Amino acid sequence: MDKPVGIIMGSQSDWPTMREAAAILDELGIGYETKIVSAHRTPDRLWDYGKTAAARGLKVIIAGAGGAAHLPGMMASKTRVPVIGVPVQTRALSGVDSLYSILQMPKGFPVATMAIGPAGAANAGLMAAGILAISDPDLAERLDAWRDALSASIPEEPVDE
Ligand SMILES: Nc1c(C(=O)O)ncn1[C@@H]1O[C@H](COP(=O)(O)O)[C@@H](O)[C@H]1O
Question: How far apart are CA 26 and CA 21, in angstroms?
Answer without folding.
Answer: 9
